[in-house]
Write a structure and sequence with these properties.
Distance between the termini: 24 Å
Shape: globular
Structural class: alpha/beta
Order of helices and strands: EHEHEHEHHH
Helix content: 40-55%
Largest sheet: 4 strands, mixed
C-alpha cells in the first residue's frame, strides 16, 4: 500500500499524522477485503482551500471537514472487480497498485470537531480518514440505512485500532 500524505496547512499535530493516516487506510483496505495493493493520496489543507475544492468539484460554497474523490467506479460497495474493466484508469502503471482515490482533510475542522465532540484530534483525524476511505470503497450515506452501515463500520474500525473517544493525541 502506498499512502501519500501532504500537509500544506502548516498545522502541527501532537501525533504523527502520516503514520496514523497510513494505519487507518491499511485497516480499511483489510476490513473491506481489497485484493490489490492500493494507492491513496491525502492532502491536509486549510478551510479556505477545502472550501474552494468543495465549490469547484461539488458546487457547494462552504468549508467542510473532508472531501473524498473515488477513482474506482464501484457499482457495489467494496466490489473491487469494478476496477478490472478500467485498468488504464484504475491501476498505477509503474507499481500495479490500484489507484483508489484522493482525500482532502481540513486541519481546522480536525481541531474544532475534536473539541466539539469531546475527543482527541488524533481520533477525529482517524475518523475522517476512515469515513473518506469508505467513500473511496464505494460506500455512501444518502439514506438512513447507508448511513447506519457506514457509522457501524467506522466505529468498529476505530475501536479495533484502539482509537476510542477517550484516546489521547500522543
Amino acid at each position: 500500500m502506498t499512502c501519500y500524505v501532504e500537509n500544506e496547512s502548516g498545522a502541527k499535530f501532537a501525533f504523527d499524522e502520516k503514520a496514523l493516516i497510513g494505519q487507518v487506510v491499511q485497516a480499511v483496505l483489510e476490513a473491506e477485503g481489497c485484493p490489490y495493493e492500493a494507492e491513496v493520496n491525502v492532502l491536509i489543507t486549510d478551510g479556505e482551500t477545502i472550501r474552494r475544492y468543495n465549490r469547484e468539484y461539488r458546487g457547494i460554497d462552504r468549508e467542510t471537514d473532508v472531501l473524498s474523490f473515488p477513482n474506482v467506479p464501484f457499482e457495489r460497495e467494496s466490489d473491487f472487480s469494478a476496477a478490472e474493466g478500467c485498468e488504464a484508469d484504475c491501476f498505477q502503471p509503474d507499481s500495479g497498485e490500484l489507484i483508489l482515490g484522493d482525500i482532502i482533510l481540513c486541519a481546522g475542522r480536525i481541531e474544532s470537531q475534536a473539541e466539539a465532540y469531546g475527543h482527541s484530534r488524533k481520533r477525529e483525524c482517524a475518523f475522517l480518514v476512515a469515513h473518506s476511505m469508505l467513500h473511496l470503497c464505494g460506500y455512501d450515506h444518502e439514506t438512513e440505512e447507508e448511513a447506519a452501515v457506514m457509522e457501524k463500520k467506522q466505529e468498529d474500525l476505530l475501536d479495533g485500532l484502539g482509537l476510542t473517544r477517550d484516546c489521547r493525541d500522543v
